Amino acid sequence: MGPDRSIITAHAGPGSTERWSSPGRRSRPRMSLNLTPMIDVVFQLLIYFLVCTNFARGEQIYKLDLPQRGTAPTQADPFQLDDEPLRIQVLSLGSEPGDYRLRLEGPWPRVADFQQLYEFLEQRVISSDNPTGLFAPDHPIVIEPAGSTSWGHAVGAFNASVRAGYNNITFAETN
User: Fold this and answer.
1) CB of 164 within 8 A of CB of 118?
2) Helix segments in the chain, DSSP class H
3) Which of 14, 88, 133, 155 counts the most CB atoms within 10 A of its CB?
4) pLDDT, tens digit, for every residue of 122-172?
5) With contact defined as beta carbons under 8 Å apart, do 118 and 160 qualify?
6) CA atoms of 99 and 145, how far apart (whole Å)
7) Which residue ranges make up each domain of the chain?
8) Is 116 exposed, middle or buried, given 0-12, 13-18 or 19+ CB atoms closer than 10 A?
9) Which DSSP state fits 135?
């Protein structure tokens, strides 16, 4: 007897999903992927992150002038902080020209009127006559009038500062 030359056919075993459409040819099951739910989830995540994200402001930019290489160390310190402004508080006590009170914020002596304010500021400005003064002419001065302060009293403090030689004077907002 010679070898058996019959066609061997594959049989699907128990639990197998293979099917034969015709003898000798098998058909593969068609697989498809439904993308609609996946796209929906992606858009929902996108909306969630857009709504829940806290967009922080950009980093702060600080001006910093570094010394050039090879320069002498006698130059000004590039890390020196800005000068704290000198604050002059003005309070009107009445409508008369002399009905006001002045207060200098900080460890400064009390000034009673605009003339004493002028003298205080003039003694502390750096100039050719006073090279050992405390404040440069462009040192910031902030005049803080109270909410009920008359305009004439606020302008009196401003005029005393200008007469003393300062040129960086501003008014603070009133409450």
Assistant:
1) yes
2) 36-52, 114-124, 151-163
3) 88
4) 888 888 888 888 888 888 888 888 888 877 888 888 888 888 888 888 888
5) yes
6) 14
7) 87-171
8) middle
9) B
